[in-house]
Amino acid sequence: MRNTSVSRIAGAGLIAGLVAFAAPASHASEPKAVLDTYADIALAGYEDSLATAKTLKTSIEALVKSPSADALDAAREAWLAARVPYQQTEAYRFGNPIVDDWEGKVNAWPLDEGLIDYVNAAYGTESDANSFYAANVIANPKVKVGGTEIDATTITPALLAETLQEIGGVEANVATGYHAIEFLLWGQDLNGTEAGAGNRPHTDFDPANCTGGNCERRAAYLTAAADLLVSDLQEMVEAWGKTGEARTTLTEGNPQAGLIAILTGLGSLSYGELAGERMKLGLLLHDPEEEHDCFADNTHNSHYYDQLGIANVYLGRYKRVDGSTVSGPSLSNLVKATDSTLDVEMRDKLKVTLDAMQALRDRAEGGEAYDQMIGEGNAEGNAAVQDAIDGLVDQTRTIERIVTALGLQGVTIEGSDSLDNPNAVFQ
Fold first, then answer.
1. Can you tell me the distance from the alpha carbon of 225 to that of 79, in angstroms, rounded to the nearest whole number?
2. What is the dihedral sign for C-alpha 317, 30, 403, 273?
3. CA 392 and chain centroid, separation
4. CA-based nearest residue to 270, from 90, 408, 139
5. DSSP helix/strand/coil, 130
6. Between vectors from CA 83 to CA 305 and to CA 130, what angle results, nearest 5°?
7. pLDDT tens across 38-85, in order?
């Protein structure tokens, strides 16, 4: 059922992409109007993320109440669907400190999953960098590591968010958000660069027929993580509401500062984060652990919707999950008024990159998952991933030219060693 779900999502996303790349309508090109559209799209994206997270929560409640293979499949499909709107909001990171400070609660990765639950023996039992590497909170109501003792007798959202998340100051101790839920729904992907995703059985949540041990505590953890995801997304919906802090900081401040925030976000996601940390690093290392949705083998979709989110912001359009569209004066309009040739260049490059991302999805639909594409010796798969990376890098260069054309000062685009200093990756 997971593959069917991904196919349905792929079709919807392709339609959204075709709509997004039609030439933008003629709108006023005042910076303030552009910022209003930007905030409206943010609100719509986070509202959709919240709505799909609530659906995911309901599916998880059904799985916990009556564990079955069908219930687990339904929860997995709900998780996949929830990723579609959320990934499109990542274009709001980097330029908006409110978003960037919050984002780690819902989308931090990669994670040392041994903190949460049982893992394969090949995972190991300790790490020099992480004392809680294999703490397995689900199996251990009391956890004592070094001088730190955790009372996890009752698994609650507060335990996950306030105690376990990044415990010990280690970013890989991810206890909350989409990827913690993903791990609990799929389990580890033990296939390396061979076919197959995680394959956790539904009986891991069934106290009457328990596999994996601690089924009630595993269900409690999954429920708490789902509750927390909903409440965290609600926080961001409020932040982008009419009187929310994220919106007012942007729209009531200096319009030039707002444009700087937009372009910082677009450039940094395009270059350092997506092209670099999420794609080129894994390709250099040929490492299946270096993929964003590694348990579900959904990385091809996450990358696609990140790119679509970049296009949404530039074009001032967002297609909601209910099929309606939020649109208005856009950055594209503003650039067109300054240099129409540059606007055409940007729109063309956005489409080239989205097409390259779609090619990755087509390969995945054909049976080759993203972790296989980046595998050593897979020349065609490697080349397809590199094409998408090249598109991201190329569109970033145009973003830099846009910054210059608009006369903006203070746009800092995040880099990545995997792009800027590849030798450092192997040191």
1. 12
2. negative
3. 16
4. 90
5. strand
6. 105
7. 999 999 999 999 999 999 999 999 999 999 999 999 999 999 999 999
d(CA 105, CA 99): 10
* CB-CB contact of 229 with 177 (8 Å): yes
Give the Cβ contact number of residue 304 at 10 Å: 29
Phi, psi of 92 (to 5 degrees): -90, 0
Q: What are the helix (H) ranges across 108-214?
A: 157-158, 178-186
Three-state DSSP state, 111: coil
Query: In the prediction, which pLDDT does 425 show?
Result: 85
Looking at residues 149-158, what average pLDDT do you find? 96
SS3 per-residue string spanning the chain: CHHHHHHHHHHHHHHHHHHHCCCCCCCCCCHHHHHHHHHHHHHHHHHHHHHHHHHHHHHHHHHHHCCCHHHHHHHHHHHHHHHHHHHHHHHHCCCCHHHHHHHHHHHCCCCCHHHCCCCCHHHCCCECCECCCCCCCCCCCEEEECCEEEECCCCCHHHHHHHHCCHHHCCCCCCCCHHHHHHHHHCCCCCCCCCCCCCCCHHHHCHHHCCCCCHHHHHHHHHHHHHHHHHHHHHHHHHCCCCCHHHHHHHCCCHHHHHHHHHHHHHHHHHHHHHHHHHHHHHHHCCCCCCCCCCCCCHHHHHHHHHHHHHHHHHCEEECCCCCEEECCCHHHHHHHHCHHHHHHHHHHHHHHHHHHHHHHHHHHCCCCHHHHCCCCCHHHHHHHHHHHHHHHHHHHHHHHHHHHCCCCCCCCCCCHHHHCHHHHCC
pTM above 0.90, yes or no: yes
Taking 90 as the threshold, does the pLDDT of residue 145 lie above it? no
Token duo for residue 2: 């997971």
SS3 368: coil
**Two tokens at 226?**
């789902």
Distance CA 66, CA 407 (A): 59
CA distances for 323 relative to 12, 307, 405, angstroms? 9, 19, 35
162/140 Cα distance (integer angstroms) = 18
